[in-house]
Structure prediction request, 363 residues.
Amino acid sequence: MSVDIGIIGLAKSGRTTIFNALTRGKADTKAPAAHIGVAKVPEPRLKVLADMLHPKRVVPAEVRYIDVGASVKELAKDKAIGGQSLAQLSNVDALINVVRAFTDDSIPHVEGSLDVDRDITTIDLELAFFDLALLERRLGKIELSLKGAKQLERQGLLHEQEMLTRVKAELENDVPIRELGLTPDEARAMANYQFLTAKPLLIVVNIGEEQLPQAASLEAKLNSHYSRPKRRLITLCGKLEMELSQLDNSAAEGFRAEFGISESGLDRTIKLSYELLGLISFFTTVSAEVKAWSISNGTSALHAAGKIHSDMERGFIRAEVISYDDLVKCDSLAEARKRGVLRPEGKNYIVQDGDVITFLFNV
Ligand SMILES: Nc1nc2c(ncn2[C@@H]2O[C@H](COP(=O)(O)OP(=O)(O)O)[C@@H](O)[C@H]2O)c(=O)[nH]1
Ligand SMILES: [Mg+2]
Prediction:
């Protein structure tokens, strides 16, 4: 399982440009088709571990970006063309909404004028609309099923009906599902429907190069308005980031310094996406490979093992765990073992960000 992030937004907002920047891709910005690409998750601790342990391979975690290439509205309307893209979109873990802020007279804005607030609202409405349609379909089916339902099934259906009716009322009042503060049980039940307003949302405001000096203040101003639970906003210069992503790292750093950009768009976007998704990293060091893995905060050692291989989960014996900081202090696993800081943990242990783990299992 990798982390999947869907890129949506109005046409000509710069979705494909930002997709290319994030994945170092060269997708044709003129082609309307969907694009899928992979980005390596920046993780500075990997390099430190590699320098210490001298593995044969260093394997970063990956994020998949999907540039859907059609609007949510179009996808929902036309099942025939939308089917596959819609399924892809429904499956993502988080969404990026690209909003145009750059000016370019040769590229007319689809709505006729530049208006960041309007465009943010437009996409919010499209997502809400999509979920409302889904809710209505499901509620209709429940209604039908209730007619012939036996007692036990009936209880379940009534419970579901009650929950969905509540969610629908909130959505109609412009409260997206991600802001409802659902209990973990409710959230788990809701996850099955793959509602779009339940997904964490990163709004990427695509600015022009000439706006770079104001990027930070614009971002702060917009965030004070749009930052909510599981929703954040950043400003990026998509076109420049795309050009820089095609250069090697040191050249790109040089240009960034000139433009006064402290961190790459890729790094910032992934970092924020991870925060929104509640993801943490852990590391494995077996078979001459140092690998980074992404899991949800709160995952047990057992499920973390299952993320690597289902055999590891099935035959789980125990985990040997050391925190990244402790390992760096000891400077080797052998020394850590000698000092007794490499500790055995059982299947219910909650994996912490930065844990270096060896899973023991038999199959
Ligand atoms: N001037 C300028 N043009 C941009 C910027 N970002 C994207 N564009 C251009 O806007 C057009 C639409 O971008 P594209 O990524 O294809 O948008 P999409 O339709 O949302 O996928 C392309 O010609 C891009 O080169 C930007 O930051 N500044
Ligand atoms: Mg495009």
Remarks:
- The longest helix spans residues 116-148.
- The pocket of guanosine-5'-diphosphate (ligand 1) is lined by residues 9, 11-17, 29, 102, 104, 107, 206, 208, 237-239 (CB under 6 Å).
- The chain has 15 helices and twelve strands.
